[in-house]
Structures are given as structure tokens and as C-alpha cells.
Amino acid sequence: MEGCAQEGQVKLLGVDYSPFVVRVRIALSLKGIHYEFIEEDIQNKSELLLQSNPVHKKIPVLIHNGKPVCESMIIVQYIEEAWGNKAPNLMPKDPYDRAIARFWAAFIDDKLLPSTLRTFRGQGEEQQKAVEESVANLLLLEEVLQSTGKAYFGGDEIGLVDIALGGLLVTIQTVEKVTNIVLTDTQKMPLLCAWADKFCKAPKVKEALPDRAKFFELMSARRAKLTSPPAGNLKGGG
Asked: What is the CA radius of gyration of the chain?
């Protein structure tokens, strides 16, 4: 990543496979900002993380000139404002368009992400309901993309909503693979599927995405734990 003027001034605390961290890495990559990535151990959080985010104690945290900024979409908007002179623009110029972008970014976090996680964690009827909710949420985003008439939610360039959803893409696709459930149907969501393909292939996005094979292994192991019966429920013969 370019941007030597910022070298040594920007640090990102996170883990490779976190979709929230991926969002920030995409924004930094698009802006060409050089940064130091500090890998965190979620089971044994560093003192730097605890000091930088004392309220939630979560990743990601962006530290710019010694000042921490928390929460992925707040960080993405901060990046746009702090490096507004660097292309591309991650936020629309028009105040109304900005409000709409923020609305759909919040929708992704408040509606789509929870239903996707319930699809991953659930079984039977509970999982089926989560699948239906996830598909309904994705269909709404298909409509939004259709209304833009452009390749991206942000228009001709990747913007806030693209990053909000794009950061979750590897997670959504891995959940589909692990559970053997289709959420993004090419027949029902042709524009969204085409967008996902284009987004993931964008050079500056591609370099910020996690290793899919490793993430699949991690998610498969988690799913196996979630679906296996508790040890106390196993009845032995004798």
C-alpha cells in the first residue's frame, strides 16, 4: 500500500478473518494508506487493545497519530474524512445521498448480519427462518443496487455501502459453503451476484480479503462444535 507520508502514523488492531476488520482494510487499501497491522489474540487481548477500546474491548481499532477510533463503519467514515483528499471518495458528496448510504450500511449490520449468523449457528426450524430472513434482506439490497443503475452501490466507484456489505462477503459465502445453503441465488439476485464477483476481483479489495481456505476450515470447525450434542447428552451402554 502506498502513502508513505502516513507511514508509522496508522495502526490497525484486528484479526485477518474478522469481517469488521476486512471492511477497514478495504477502505485503507482503496485510499492507498500505509498502515501497520497488529494481529490480536481474541482469547488473550493485548493491553493496547484494552486501552484503545476500553468500552467494548473489541476489534477493529484504528490508531491514527496515537488516537484510537473504534467500530468498523465509524472507522471507514473516519478514513474518508481524515484522507478526503485521497481518491476514491468513499462517501457521497450530497448530504441526502450520504444519509441514504448510512441507512443501508446500518441495515446490513442490523438486519443482514444477524440473520446470516443465525443461519450459521442454527438448526432445523430456527435455521430455516434465519435463511428466509437473510434472503429477504439480500433481495432488498438487490433492489437498491438495481435503483442505482450502476456497477456499485456507490455508483461508478466503490463506496460506503459496498464496503459495509463487501466486508461480509467472504463470511456470507463461507456460511453458504459450510451449511450447504444458498443465500445469494443468481436467479433471484443477478445484480447482487454480479456485484459480488466484481467487488471481490477489484485489485485493492482482493488484497484485503482473508484467505478463503483457512476461513472455511475455521468456520467448519465452529459449525461442528455448534451442531454436535453436548457431552452430557451422550448415553453410554453398559
From this structure: 19
Residue ranges of E strands in the chain: 10-14, 36-39, 61-64, 67-70
CB-based contact 192:168 (threshold 8 Å): no
Location of C-alpha cell 483528499 = 85
Q: To 5 degrees, how large is the angle CA 207–CA 209–CA 214?
A: 120
What's 103-141 look like in SS3? HHHHHHHHHHHHHHHHHHHCCHHHHHHHHHHHHHHHHHH
| pTM exceeds 0.90 | yes
pLDDT at 197 over 90: yes
Q: Say what the pLDDT of residue 2 is.
A: 39
Identify the CA nearest to 191 among candidates 224, 145, 137. 145
Average pLDDT of every residue of the chain: 93
Distances 61 to 4, 80, 100, 167 between C-alpha atoms, Å: 21, 16, 25, 16
Pairing of strands 61-64, 10-14: antiparallel
* 55, three cell numbers: 468500552
